[in-house]
């Protein structure tokens, strides 16, 4: 394949990289007052990347770039579209949050752009070296974003914890990659699959386990979830919203591609690991959230819980299961962004966050619209019909049943009832407790727009998208099995 074709297929990543470098120079030569203009330019670049990415899918183009290091296919287009949408939403709500603290600088949108480039490489990687480069590019910018509020001790602590534990996870992945390379003789996904089909030794199995364990850290799956509550609580809320959405989509997509690609011929070697991680994440996420009083920590455990449901689709190891994963991720992005934007809007007149259940007691009286939006989001996260979150759980459980994993689906359904408890606690506090403080301060229009769109998608209106979303997810999932 010619270099011109390779450059075209990687157009979104190249465009974001060039834009990021240009905006970095602009940031260095301008004052902090230019940060908003830089943010607008970054959002425009991400929107352009989204349109270009979608055009690849619409044109039916799917090809390998740079000698098999990068693949532009329907699966990559679907996942990267979710990544770009989530990143755009998180960038839109960030400036007002940091402006209130006098901490917003042009470096923030630049870091988000480079993070998006890394996530794009993670999703499209068809070689372990490309995967690792994309993973590190995303991770390094994430460490800085977590500690972006330099005058906040919790933010600095979150960044340090994320850096230390993230470095450990990267080392685990790299060790696994070295084992896989040692026993297969190649870093190409296709070559690894061929080598493992001929000879899958105990050493190769250890390599698979180490790679999957490192990626499990990135998706915050149990037992590699310990960083999530502390980082989510300490990081600035717009950054937390970003961590819970875009990087999680990219990491799950990376996990799905590597499980069905190079390791796709050895399903028995990783399926039991994924089943354990799925059930453990559902149970630990649900039980861990019950005793939480801090809203961000509760949503962190909710994120762990949702990863468990996503992994049920992967455990099925079928096109229907992968399609269910993509559908769930699509709905999850809007539920998560809506929830964290609602938390962003929970601020008193002095700009202090309303961070606990006591702070939002009686919210239906002081801010009824915001309370009803939170009610819809919490019920959707709990999977209660007729909200759209129910459909995400339904499709992954259906895929598990079709794969004869009835016990897994039954345990997952039973465990999801536990999770409903802490979501309903939101409703009880907001609608049945007496107000203990003043009404939240007026929120910016940009926050209301993002929240309104998120609530509209997860409302019963979202079911109008099911035929279109299902067809796209099916086509994207089939690409993985076609390539394999």
Structural features:
484 residues, mainly alpha, two-stranded antiparallel sheet, transmembrane helix, NAD, ubiquinone, quinone
Question: How would you describe the overall organization of this protein?
Answer:
Its EC number is 7.1.1.-. InterPro entries: NADH-Q_OxRdtase_suN/2 (IPR010096), ND/Mrp_TM (IPR001750). One of its GO terms (molecular function) is NADH dehydrogenase (quinone) (non-electrogenic) activity. The chain crosses the membrane at residues 6-26, 38-57, 69-94, 106-125, 162-184, 204-227, 270-291, 298-319, 325-346, 367-385, 405-424, 445-465. It catalyses: a quinone + NADH + 5 H(+)(in) = a quinol + NAD(+) + 4 H(+)(out). The protein has 484 residues and is mostly helical. The protein has a domain at 266-483. The chain is built from 21 helices and 2 strands. The protein has helices at residues 3-9, 11-29, 35-58, 74-99, 107-124, 128-146, 153-184, 189-198, 202-219, 228-234, 237-243, 246-260, 267-290, 295-316, 319-345, 363-366, 368-382, 389-402, 406-432, 445-458, 466-483, and strands at residues 63-65, 70-72. Strands 1-2 form a two-stranded antiparallel sheet. The radius of gyration is 21 Å and the shape is globular. The two termini are 20 Å apart.
